[in-house]
Design goal:
Elements: H1 13-22, E1 29-33, H2 35-43, E2 48-54, H3 55-62, H4 68-75, H5 89-101, E3 105-109, H6 111-117, E4 126-131, H7 137-142, E5 149-154, H8 159-171, E6 177-180, H9 189-194, E7 204-208, H10 210-219, E8 222-232, E9 245-251, H11 259-264, E10 267-269, H12 282-293
Parallel strand pairs: 2-3, 5-6, 5-9, 6-7, 8-9, 8-10
Antiparallel strand pairs: 1-4, 2-4
Length: 300
Amino acid sequence: MNLDEPIRSAQNAKLKAVRAMRAGKERGSTVLEGRHLLEEALDNDVAVAWVLISERLVSAAANPATTNADVAETTSAVADAAVTDHANPSDYSTLIQRAQSAGIEVAVCQESLLADVSRFEGAPDLLAWASRPLGDWREALAQSQPGDWWMVAGGVQDPGNLGALVRVAAGFGAAGVLCLKGGGSPWHPRALRGAAGTTFRLPVFERIEIKEFLAAATEFAVELWATAADGESVDPNAAASRTEIVALMMGEEGRGLSAELFDACSKRVGIPLDRGVESLNVATAAAVIAAAMRVPKEPS
């Protein structure tokens, strides 16, 4: 890696930009922490402006004596991350070379400064600044085909749960994810980690006004399905013949959907539970229902 003198000032423009984003002053971009998220962004043609890598990583890459165990110990400091980067220095070198070949600026940064701007415990080996994919949620909803379904987060606050919902939507064939106002952001670092990079694999929209969403659902003939403890099971055998466009409405754990959203739904769906269990984690419940909603793929 051919890199200039490391960043050693907290007043560096890139670090100041990250802090401004953390304070909610920048909504057009997002910060990616870790190798896996950067790989996903590059794989999905996300615009990445710059990448900061830690001094420790550069030293490890320059020192052949560094073992995989050494790297694993330092790169797994984030205990609550959904994805950890257990990679050796050569993997990072390849990724950095790929970024540089794409014209992305790469700089080395003092490890303590990276730790200061990280949302996680410890300093990330890599931090990147990327543009959030642009798009019009109404246009995306209008282009839905018969049988399509959308994941809708109505008031889900926890970033980890929100990221898990994105991952479920990607894995079970949703047309996209709509996050309504009053909930968390799918671009929060913990949400991005929870989604394991899948946020870049399907349309994801946020900060949608509830009234605008309900109006669009009516305009585009989207059926709203509320998840409820007394809801009916979703028949997986019916998925292939379903012609309706469906929005699966997931509310915050404990509180569920707001009365406004719940009353707008035409159907209640749920999961039969045993042994007195009353409910599941919102992402777990979404996965069970989404598995039944997935339209089978034609054999290739």
